Amino acid sequence: PRVQDLAGRRVVVSAGPTREYLDPVRFISNPSSGKMGFAVAEEARDRGARVVLVSGPVSLPDPAGMEVRRVDSALELRDAVVGAALGADVVVMTAAVADYRAAEQSQEKQAKVAQEVVVRLVPNPDILAELGGQKGRRVLVGFAMETHAGVERAAAKAQRKNADFILLNYPTQEGTSFGGDDNEVTLVRPDGSWEAWPRTSKREVARRLLDEAVRLLPGD
Ligand code: C5P
Question: What ranges does the record give for the region Phosphopantothenate--cysteine ligase, renumbered to this chain (predicted)?
């Protein structure tokens, strides 16, 4: 039995990709599997937390013992996360939120044409930054994938979004990040301090993430 260090705490986790529809059958998305976020949600549940898991489209089944809300787009994810975050003690933004959505979403399937097609994109709201702007006593955790200057960029991101820490990973590492069962991350704080964790299972990364979050929780 796991130590119940999240008993009575409310934890919100976002997971998976978002889909930004161009028309009813086409969308922009990314290869996020949701495995990292589901691991965080399951680990938090096993440590006694009341968990809300907000997930974009992934092939994983609903984990038992928590509230699961399935969404498609970044705007839907934002509504669900912001709603659930009211009164939460810890929010972990694992979701790979699409940065842009189509400026216009066609209600009918767009016919194929011979010419070049231009799609206008508009930025999606940054959910983590929004939560950081109203931080209160919540512990806020983000993820970041970077291809270069990872620690500096992640620290700047943590600062800008007012997150307590960010777990940085690289898309290029064999068997880690997108789709894999393992992950190799570096914990980065807004002050620029960091700790590189060894490559391990996503569940073990979740365990260490929540250890750090528990240390940051204010006492009652
Ligand atoms: O800025 P970047 O996308 O690299 O930041 C990644 C972190 O911010 C992740 O925790 C992700 O869930 C969160 N994010 C968000 N809303 C967005 C984009 C990213 O909450 N629109």
Answer: 11-220
Flag whether 27 is in a domain. yes
| 112 annotated as ligand-binding | no
Domain count, the chain: 1
The response to whether 125 counts as a known ligand-binding position is: yes
This complex has an ipTM of 0.98
Q: What is the pLDDT of residues 154-195, one digit of tens each?
A: 999 999 999 999 999 987 655 565 778 899 999 999 999 999
Give the number of the atom of ligand 1 that is nearest the alpha carbon of residue 124: 21
Name the residues annotated as catalytic: 30
Query: If you measure from the C-alpha of residue 32 to the centroid of ligand 1, how many angstroms do you get, rounded to a whole number?
Result: 13
Residue 35 annotated as binding site = no
- Tell whether ligand 1 has an atom less than 6 A from the beta carbon of residue 164: no
Q: What's the CA-to-centroid distance between 127 and ligand 1, angstroms?
A: 7
For 114-141, write each residue's pLDDT tens digit.
Answer: 999 999 999 999 999 999 999 999 999 9
pTM: 0.96
Helix 202-216 vs helix 35-46: crossing angle, to nearest 10: 60
Beta bridge partners, 187, equal 167, 195
**Cα-to-centroid distance, 61 and ligand 1 (Å):** 24
